[in-house]
Amino acid sequence: MTFFLPPLGLILLWCSSQIRRSTKLLGTGYVLAYSVLYLVALVSILAYGFRVDLIKWRKGYQPVFVVSKRLSNDNKYGLSHPEIHDSHSGSWTGFRGENRDGVYRGKAIGTNWPTSGPRQLWRRAVGSGYSSMTIAEGLVFTIEQRREKEVAAAYDAESGREIWRQAWKAKFDEAFGGEGPRATPTYDDGRLYVQGATGNLLCLEAASGRLNWQRNIIVENQTDLTVYGVATSPLIVDEKVIVLPGGRNRKSVVAYNKFNGALLWQSMSDRQAYTSPMLVTLAGEKQILVVSARDIMGLSPEEGRLLWQTQWVIPNDNAIAQPVLLGPTRFLVSAGYGVGSVAFELTRANSGFMLRELWRNRYLKNKFSSSVVFNGYIYGLDETILTCLDAATGARQWKEGRYGYGQLLLAGEHLIILGEDGTLALVDATPTEYRERARFQAIVGKTWNYPAMANGKVFVRNAAEMACYDLGQ
Questions:
Q1: pTM confidence score
Q2: Is 316 exposed, middle or buried, given 0-12, 13-18 or 19+ CB atoms closer than 10 A?
Q3: CATH topology assigned to domain 51-470
């Protein structure tokens, strides 16, 4: 009785003639302490509402109790409308950051981590899948699998509390990687663009999750899913959202209007792989850099016109790693499966472009992860071992430090590496020697998801849990 109604429990306690006075006094202390917690919980439920989700958690499903803002009666989508945090809280607007280069350019981080790791701000269960996180407006966005539905969810960046969710019926599962969506949401000017593993493309209001429009890029462009599902993140260029369905008959690269989902243009006929399109400037030309299942190409953002193209063949079409810009005219592509890396230079020639190979070797074989560049040197995982190469020549400077098939980002003069086992490491980005400053267990379980960073905080997740750590000085 005390659990449900503390005051009534207190009355019954003192009315009992079989309980000694000393026991009653001790019991009164416990009831009063419990009453404080009871009142706080009651006020929270009345003010914000309450619901329960079932999220897959290692073995079986764990009930996750979510306190979220009460829904307004006129919300036909059944979604909450949270207050928007100040934009100064920092942002990480898409896959591998704003430029998709894996470089964090925000508040400086501290480098003297305690043995147990930096301060953990929050930790929570999350649905399965390999989406990374996007941070904007004080919210953390990701895509998850929750039973038979894919779910785009927004969490408070400071507390990890779920703010809203938008779900649709879809489930992708395959033997090697397991179930769940693969692509990372993209944020742009108050809107969130999410891409599910079976081709569902949604435009949502970032503040509330309200659905603006929805398409299925696989069905509309008459193509088939790749072996591991749709893993490419949408790219926003001006008024366009650019996606990679991989359809034949000029339906490989497609641009939709970002405001209403109307088709704007279709281009190329390549099968697609798992590398997301990038907006870059090479040889003075703004262009969309695309790595398909068999080619590398540059397309004009305006109408998808082919600017240049070269072959890039990976066994089983497993092009996964992002291209990396090495300079105004140079870029790197890399792959596992024994392929290695190639550096190219793109220059203008007559009315078009000329692509020249600078160097090629097998010192850096990016399989699941992508590399970063700092002060003329490339840092990346050669399969599972951290490696540093000279960007100009491809010469290996060092190879040391095992992180499994993890992921890495550049923050200042340091690498933030999320290992395949869920450990988080801090390594100096220097060509002279391998120096790991710290390493700790950030999350538990197989971790293939990219970390994200904003406002001095690092956000990590895998197919079971998500956590935030404060790296600020």
A1: 0.84
A2: exposed
A3: Methylamine Dehydrogenase; Chain H (2.130.10)
